[in-house]
Each structure stands twice: as structure tokens, then as C-alpha cells.
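User: quick one, fold this
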Amino acid sequence: MVATLNDFGKFGARGIKGSDAVARKLDELADGIVTPVTVKRGLMARLHYLTRTEHSRRAARDAGLTVTDRTLQAWLEGKRRPSSANLERIDAAYRQVRRHNVARHLLRRLNSAGGTRVKIHPLNQSQVPRPLQRLVEYRTMNVRRWDRIVETWASGDHQGLDDAWEDVIVDLGSQWGQYQYVTNIGFAA
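Assistant:
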């Protein structure tokens, strides 16, 4: 059923890369502003987060929000509204700065007490013809060292996160390839 990574889904299996599921869960744990950037409240909250100190302004610029101070001030005062492209930049900069700011705290929580228990939900085979389906069970494992995972997530290095997650799932033994694509990965910190 699960052929190679190059032809994943060939027979109808559905899922996402395990590293993407880990990134999604880390983003959820990072909390942050829930209101969308397209709503005034969400926009203002993000702008205040990105401009409250010189350090956060510098981080926002490094994250791709390269507008003048005058434009930022006009947005903050409500005199002008950012374009759709700038709303996307604001949201992306917020996510990147937020990840960087919470990474150390998350890492400490995930590594405490010998690591964090992770539950891996296998890929969805409901659309795969019966003879091609494999028995792929829910798996749990304890991830003891989150350093590389959190570091690559915080920096936005997708390939690095993929490599770091692959290094973790090989601990599942000979079945690790069956868990490269999943429906969900759950853990708490």
C-alpha cells in the first residue's frame, strides 16, 4: 500500500508528512494570537507584538516585514490598512518571531522528565482498495531529545525538521517507514 515516498498516495492513501504534523502541533503549543490578521483586532495584536520593543522590531524586519516606520505608525494608528500582501507578511513575521520567542520555553518543557510521549496516528487508508491496505496501528513513543526538532521548527527550516523527525522515527524499528506520512501526531508540553 505505502509504496515509496516519491509516489505516496498512488493507491489512495491520505496523510501529511510526519514533520509537518509535528510543526503543526508545535505551532499549536506556541499559542499566540488566534484572531485572524484580516480582522482589525488580530492585525493590531500582531503589530503591537512586532513593534513593542526595538528587539521585536528588528526581529520583524529579519522575518521579512520591511516597511518604513512611518507606514507602521499609520497602520498602528488606523490611518491606513495594509494590503493583502502586507497582511500575509505581517502574519508570517508574527509566526516566525513568536516561534523564536517561545522555542526555549517549549524545549525545556518537552525535554523535562526524560522526554515527551508522542502518539502517532497512521495515514488514512479508507480510499485504498482492500487488497492493498496494510495494518498500520497507532504508535506511541517517547522522544527524549527535542533540541534539533525545536531548533529547526523555530528557524523555519522545513528540510531540517523533516530530517530531524526522520532521525526520531527510526526508533520505531523496521516499521518506521510506515509512519513517515500520518494523519496526526499528538503530544503535550
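User: anything notable?
Assistant: The chain is about 50% helix and 10% strand.
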